[in-house]
Specification:
Blueprint: H1 49-63, H2 70-77, H3 91-103, H4 115-132, H5 148-159, H6 168-202, H7 206-223, H8 227-234, H9 245-267
Helix pairs in contact: 1-2, 1-3, 3-5, 4-6, 4-9, 6-9, 7-8
Length: 268
């Protein structure tokens, strides 16, 4: 992950439970360690905010975002719980920092002059980052990170469109369209993974499943309203197959990029 960027690059977002990150880590009065600290624990000044954020991300990756708490992070870092508040004011601020840190993982390529190829590379990088941290999907729609890493990635992404004559608003719409496509793809893929997990946990073998599938297919055929569905069932097409996820993503990405190209050409 990149080095921590200056706090003054965060936007002025304040409100109930949200500390203005431009002010830097809030220093609480009194000793940094509280009732949860133990002899030998690391004290506040010896920690860094980056360590805390990295530990929180590791917990979310392995145990889910709901497992992230100051107490759990303190256990991982062998620190007093209250020591963390030297660096992070609240769990809400911590989540902002986690999302912004991970945004930097979506490696934006240097512009090559082929904006369509560059947009494809950007979409693939964004999808890959989200797939490494699927828990992020629960937060991407409601609280988009606005920290310096996110803004720097946006700056680099918009540079991909330099030189093709777009105004700022249109460039933003193009970028939003591409990133929304990769976000939506991962949202679907996560649901596919959950469904497959449920099937695996049910313990039903393919031999046991087949007669159930066939009976369902026959009911649909007898109803008469599901001709197209019956045809793809007869061809044994699995729309959620793990082995076709990359192929499906690339097909949709081609449609998105070609659609954008057509729309931009028509607007000239």
């Amino acid at each position: 992950m990149p080095g921590q960027l200056p706090d003054d690059l965060w936007p002025p977002l304040t409100g109930p439970g949200r500390h203005d990150a431009r002010q830097g880590p809030r220093r609480r009065p009194g000793p940094p360690d509280g009732p949860h600290s133990r002899p030998g624990n690391r004290r506040g000044p010896s920690l860094s905010r980056a360590e805390i954020v990295d530990a929180a991300i590791a917990i979310a990756d392995s145990e889910g975002a709901e497992a992230v708490s100051m107490r759990r992070i303190a256990q991982v870092l062998r620190s007093g719980t209250m020591s963390l508040y030297w660096h992070v004011d609240s769990k809400e601020q911590l989540l902002d920092l986690m999302l912004d840190t991970l945004t930097a993982e979506a490696d934006i390529p240097e512009p090559t002059g082929d904006w369509q190829a560059d947009l494809r590379a950007l979409a693939r990088a964004h999808r890959a980052m989200l797939r490494r941290h699927l828990w992020m999907m629960d937060f991407m729609g409601g609280r988009p990170p606005l920290g310096p890493n996110t803004l720097l990635n946006l700056e680099h992404a918009l540079a991909v469109l330099d030189g093709i004559g777009l105004d700022v608003a249109t460039s933003l719409r193009v970028m939003e369209t591409v990133l929304t496509y990769s976000l939506g793809t991962v949202l679907r893929e996560r649901q596919e993974m959950r469904t497959q997990r449920d099937v695996d946990q049910a313990g039903i073998s393919m031999q046991e499943w087949e007669p159930l599938r066939q009976a369902w297919r026959d009911r649909l055929a007898a109803d008469g309203r599901f001709g197209h569905v019956v045809r793809f069932l007869d061809q044994r097409i699995d729309p959620d197959a793990e082995g076709t996820r990359d192929e499906r993503f690339e097909f949709g990405l081609d449609c998105v990029i070609e659609g954008i190209s057509s729309a931009l050409s028509a607007g000239k």
